[in-house]
Backbone:
């Protein structure tokens, strides 16, 4: 693969920074949920840090993202600000959605986070519309739809991928195959790799190791080039593994213990960190500084969120329509 | 108002009015785009031709025929609307909204609220339905109550060419999702055409005829059944006030309550099945607001509680007819 795109040193460090942010953020969230200080349904993306980190370093703030309930990693990699995120998770009026959306509906258009959906399969049809808008405007923007392997079996996947291919939309479908659709293993729900389905739509499709920052970067780079050149959509199936149960708190007894232990032992975050140091891309101190800064930012965000006021009940009548409702 | 709006009132059909409304909106605003099955001119501009001429005039990037994929159609409309477009999505038949309910109910209706007002979904969902063509159980249902029951969606049901134009223009202007329900047999209904740029405000009913003994509240094709009923009642010495609701959600409480406060009697007529229909909500509000002023219990007339049947005599008996309206009105007068 001589012509495969490779991230330069600065980009490698930036990929790591985003991965470290996702990992640290997840660890803090789980800690606070466990302690009872933060009460929310939480779908941990732990283990899937590489995919959005290596993807979004190829994109800009004004490119669009539609993601799903297990999507905080996607949002953070896209630049979603921590304070707005945490305040929304805590259901406070200072949250990005004024506390009216919550973890499954986080939205931040300034960084292109246009939709977060709690419905499996719904990110893809909406991503097409954003991409259609870019196509009409000729603004060169790219839209990314993130979803899990479970979403590859819902009808909306088929409708959306087919339409995107027929309309040659500048969209990238990123299937994060973490081997689990809720409690059911992928091999029990489909006979073929998700990426193989791309051929059925006349679309470029690729399966990559989603835990390898270099493979993921190269796949994303090619897909972005294709989209910006007006050559249509790409389906990327990024292979990864979910470290926790479907929803935080589930006993995950359905997950093979050895498989899970192996995946955690092969944690992509410390693995990439060690590689950066070994390859002399970044010093131990530089990475430690990055991590310390992240922890400090999370401290500030968590503190801000938990000390912010809850929304007024008058919010029930606002944002249903443009004009406040009176009933 | 521009000078070109001062044209002489002419005659035309609902079909022509809808086509003119979309054409005028697209002409005045690049953000208005159209998608759906067969909407482009190579596909004959829709199965009844509502969008005829648009793709030729505005290009096939702005007027785009789609695969038969209702979720993809509405998803694309929603996505484009989030970044400033005003998409008009055609869902050919109202029954086909059922295969895209997630996009309508979970997304179009809720994104404004769930994003705390950061995004909104100014889409128009055009859809047709209604009995009269022996289309049977899956091509004829009036499902407006489902959408009226969903916070975040507006629902309009034009009954004349002029209202079709004015409501379509207002639906396109609206910053929130609006479902425009077009009645199939009414496409070829002829009447006065609106002047260019005319608007019918969403949420505003129309008193088609003033009366004193009872109020008949109807919409869509039921106006065509109720109008002769009012004339017949007149002959029997009963003065009925006829209100065309025009918008089902949010319905015009003010106009309806004022009318029923005056007449003391209300008959609500719709083609949708009676149980849990829009009539139930209107009746309930009338009872809540006007208890003590009502001279008779509020009455509802709607479709039979069965799937729309095929055989002509059965289909004819399904929805309220003029004779049913006359009989129900007379029963209210005791």
Residues:
């Amino acid at each position: 693969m001589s012509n495969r795109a490779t991230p330069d040193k600065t980009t490698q460090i930036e990929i790591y920074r985003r991965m470290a942010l996702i990992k640290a953020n997840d660890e803090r969230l789980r800690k606070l949920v466990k302690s009872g200080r933060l009460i929310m349904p939480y779908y941990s993306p732990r283990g899937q840090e590489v995919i959005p980190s290596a993807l979004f370093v190829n994109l800009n703030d004004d490119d669009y993202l539609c993601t799903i309930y297990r999507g905080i990693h996607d949002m953070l990699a896209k630049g979603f600000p921590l304070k707005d995120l945490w305040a929304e998770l805590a259901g406070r009026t200072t949250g990005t959605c004024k506390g009216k959306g919550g973890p499954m509906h986080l939205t931040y258009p300034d960084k292109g986070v246009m939709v977060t959906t709690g419905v499996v399969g719904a990110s893809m049809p909406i991503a097409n519309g954003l991409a259609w808008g870019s196509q009409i405007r000729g603004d060169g923007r790219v839209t990314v739809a993130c979803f899990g392997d479970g979403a590859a079996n819902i009808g909306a996947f088929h409708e959306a991928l087919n339409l995107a291919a027929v309309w040659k939309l500048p969209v990238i479908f990123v299937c994060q195959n973490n081997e689990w659709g809720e409690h059911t293993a992928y091999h029990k729900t489909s006979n073929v790799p998700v990426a193989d389905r791309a051929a059925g739509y006349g679309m470029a499709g690729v399966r990559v190791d989603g835990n390898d920052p270099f493979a993921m970067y190269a796949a994303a780079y090619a897909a972005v080039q294709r989209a910006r050149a007006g050559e249509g959509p790409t389906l990327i199936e990024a292979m990864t593994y979910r470290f926790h149960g479907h929803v935080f708190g589930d006993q995950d007894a359905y997950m093979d213990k050895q498989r899970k232990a192996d995946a955690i032992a092969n944690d992509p975050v410390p693995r990439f960190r060690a590689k950066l140091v070994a390859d002399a891309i970044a010093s131990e101190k530089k990475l430690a500084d990055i991590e310390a800064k992240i922890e400090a930012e999370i401290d500030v965000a968590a503190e801000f969120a938990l000390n912010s006021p809850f929304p007024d009940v008058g919010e029930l009548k606002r944002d249903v329509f443009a004009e406040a409702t009176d009933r | 108002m521009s000078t070109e709006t001062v044209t002489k009132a002419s005659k035309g059909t609902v079909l022509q009015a809808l086509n003119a409304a979309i054409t005028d909106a697209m002409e005045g605003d690049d953000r208005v785009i159209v998608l759906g099955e067969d909407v482009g001119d190579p596909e004959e501009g829709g199965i009844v031709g509502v969008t005829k001429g648009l793709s030729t005039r505005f290009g096939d990037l702005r007027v785009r025929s789609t695969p038969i994929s209702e979720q993809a159609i509405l998803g694309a409309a929603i996505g484009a609307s989030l970044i400033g477009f005003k998409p008009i999505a055609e869902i050919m038949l109202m029954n086909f909204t059922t295969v895209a309910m997630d996009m309508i109910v979970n997304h179009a209706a809720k994104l404004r609220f769930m994003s705390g007002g950061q995004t909104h979904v100014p889409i128009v969902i055009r859809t047709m339905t209604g009995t009269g063509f022996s289309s049977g159980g899956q091509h004829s249902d009036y499902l407006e109550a489902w959408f009226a029951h969903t916070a975040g969606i507006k629902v309009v049901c034009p009954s004349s060419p002029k209202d079709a134009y004015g409501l379509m223009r207002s639906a396109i202007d609206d910053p929130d999702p609006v479902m425009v329900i077009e009645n199939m047999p009414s496409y070829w209904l002829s009447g006065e055409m609106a002047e260019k740029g005319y608007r019918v405000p969403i949420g505003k009913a129309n008193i088609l005829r003033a009366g004193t003994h009872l109020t008949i509240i109807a919409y869509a094709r039921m106006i065509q059944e109720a109008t002769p009923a009012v004339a017949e009642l007149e002959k029997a010495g009963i003065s009925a006030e006829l209100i065309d609701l025009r918008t089902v959600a949010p319905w015009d409480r003010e106009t309806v309550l004022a009318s029923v406060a005056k007449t003391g009697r209300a008959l609500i007529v719709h083609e949708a099945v009676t149980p849990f229909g829009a009539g139930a909500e209107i009746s309930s509000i009338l009872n809540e607001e006007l208890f003590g002023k009502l001279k008779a219990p509020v009455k509802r007339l709607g479709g039979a509680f069965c799937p729309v049947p095929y055989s002509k005599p059965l289909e004819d008996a399904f929805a309220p007819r003029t004779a049913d309206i006359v009989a129900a009105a007379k029963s209210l007068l005791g």
